[in-house]
Amino acid sequence: MNKNISTVYIASDHRGVGLKLYLINMLNAAGYTVVNLGTDDPNSMVDYPDVAAGLANAMAEDKLSRGIIICGTGAGVTIAANRYRHIRASRCSNPSQARDDRFHDDTNVLSLAADDLDIEVAFLTAQAFLESPFDAIERRIRRIEKIS
User: Which of 15, 48, 38, 5 is nearest to 116 (CA)?
Assistant: First the structure.
């Protein structure tokens, strides 16, 4: 468990509810403080831009937090989350991608595709995202400052 993370905020639209609830249980068991931002109803037909806004707002005041956001394809929530300057969301489908995106780009939100990912692979991907460091060398910091 990464002790430098204060909170893991997690949110999904209706298509991601099952995966989100599984990840909450697994991350709690791993010792993370997880805040469920909803939805918990697979029949609620929540719009993914609203889900992304809720996650971005929660993370705005908590610089040590990370986020996980889920929709059917992972694309919608990624696009919506990246509208916020303090969010660097990346859609990952395996642990290697998650490690690389953290290391090179200091991603702070992991986007997952509920329709495409095996739940165990999704957990391993989330774990890699949460445990991987950012390689804070000058050129990477400079690049991130240009987008943040």
Answer: 15
* 138 conformational bin, left if phi > 0, alpha if psi -120 to 50, beta if neither: alpha
Handedness of CA 81, 47, 57, 17 (dihedral sign): negative
Q: pLDDT tens per residue, the chain (148 residues)?
A: 787 899 999 999 999 999 999 999 999 999 999 999 989 998 888 899 999 999 999 999 898 999 999 999 999 999 999 999 999 999 999 999 999 999 999 999 999 999 999 999 999 999 999 999 998 789 888 988 888 8
Catalytic residues: 104
Three-class secondary structure of residue 8 per DSSP: strand
Domains of the chain (ranges; CATH) run: 8-147 (3.40.1400.10)
Please, which residues have CB within 8 angstroms of residue 32's CB and are 6 or more apart in sequence? 1, 5, 8, 130
| Contact criterion met (CB below 8 Å) for 26 and 20 | no
* Confidence (pTM): 0.95
What whole-number distance in Å separates Cα of residue 22 and Cα of residue 78? 20
